[in-house]
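Postdoc handover notes: sequence design on the structure in folder B. Input tokens:
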């Protein structure tokens, strides 16, 4: 298995609702926590085309955790989060 496939998380949503008074009736990421990352990801992207800025995710060096919170873009029903280290 390639390392790119190991750095992938699929988020499935079964109920669409309007969040954060957004103008779209789709999914928004409230909070996702990925454990066990040895170093800060160089790039995090959603659905293969939307690259997150460093303000949209946090990496905690002390406990090797990456947090995604309050991502306010229209997402698909099955959203893919991918990250790369270099």
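Designed sequence:
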């Amino acid at each position: 298995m390639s390392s790119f496939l190991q750095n992938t998380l699929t988020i499935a949503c079964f109920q669409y609702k309007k969040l954060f008074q957004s103008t779209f009736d789709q999914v928004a990421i409230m909070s996702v926590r990925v454990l066990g990352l040895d170093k800060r990801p160089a790039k995090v992207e959603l659905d293969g085309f939307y690259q997150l800025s460093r303000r949209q995710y946090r990496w905690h060096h002390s406990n090797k955790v990456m947090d995604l919170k309050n991502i306010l873009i229209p997402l698909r029903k099955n959203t893919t989060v991918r990250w790369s280290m270099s």
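Context for whoever picks this up: The mean pLDDT is 74. Don't rerun without checking with the PI first.
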